[in-house]
């Protein structure tokens, strides 16, 4: 287990003192690993992954390498935290669709943030939108929740760069979709944060992509289910078993 000191990035961040996290991440995103906190089961620590090594041509430029490392490890995190802080004043209409931000962490493995875990009613981590579709849990109620989420997403002031099926989860307690990653402008020049019209246009495109991905994955999941049913019926027929009642055919 690792002992990691927590440092505040602003006055609104809460200090948790020293925390103990799991040696191995319990989940992994595109840019961060997620760790459990042993004495705070309702919290998670998301740590920025190390940036990939620069190309050989740039390695001789030490200043550029340091600037690149600082940008990859620090700037996206700072912009995300500022986004959490900015929308905190918008009330429940905004915060109900965002994972609760707790604090910023400086760790042995890199910079990270402490957030409140979104869990299922059985205590496990909430399923992502992709998992809901894959495992057959996506229904009319969750589709309505997704519509509400995307309507909020497009019309809110939040700046988001990378939103997809794996960082939207379903909160079974509030029956809402929650965004757990991807907020803040990740580009070198934060144009979406500067220009609200550009931000809205980008979010409309993201929402359209999510609808398209949901349709494709839902269709794939149902086709696989139907193919399995057909396979079982074929196998039952081949072995003389009536699948409908589990008994052998008469005669």
**Separate helix tally:** 7
> Do you know the CATH architecture?
Orthogonal Bundle
User: What's the SSE pattern?
Assistant: EEEEEHHHEEHHEEHHEE
Number of domains: 1
- List low-pLDDT spans: 1-15, 232-251
**C-alpha Rg (nearest Å):** 22 Å
How far apart are the first and last residues' alpha carbons, in Å? 66 Å
Q: Helix/strand-derived class?
A: alpha+beta
What spatial form do the alpha-carbon principal axes imply? globular
Report the major sheet: 5 strands, antiparallel
Strand fraction: 15-25%
Give the helix proportion (percent range): 25-40%
CATH class annotation: Mainly Alpha
pLDDT averaged residue by residue: 75
The CATH topology turns out to be Transferase(Phosphotransferase), domain 1
Strand order of the largest sheet: 3-4-5-7-6
Quickly list its features.
alpha+beta, two-stranded antiparallel ribbon, 7 helices, disordered C terminus, 5-stranded antiparallel beta sheet, 19% strand, 251 residues, globular, Transferase(Phosphotransferase), domain 1, disordered N terminus
Give a written overview of the molecule.
This protein is an alpha+beta fold. It has a single domain (20-218), classed as Transferase(Phosphotransferase), domain 1, CATH 1.10.510. The protein has 7 helices and 11 strands. The chain has a 5-stranded antiparallel beta sheet, covered by helices on one side. The chain has a two-stranded antiparallel ribbon with strand order 1-2. Strands 8-9 form a two-stranded antiparallel sheet. A hairpin with a 2-residue loop joins strand 6 and strand 7. Helix 5 (140-155) packs antiparallel against helix 7. It is globular, with a radius of gyration of 22 Å. The chain starts with a strand and ends with a strand. The relative contact order is 0.11.
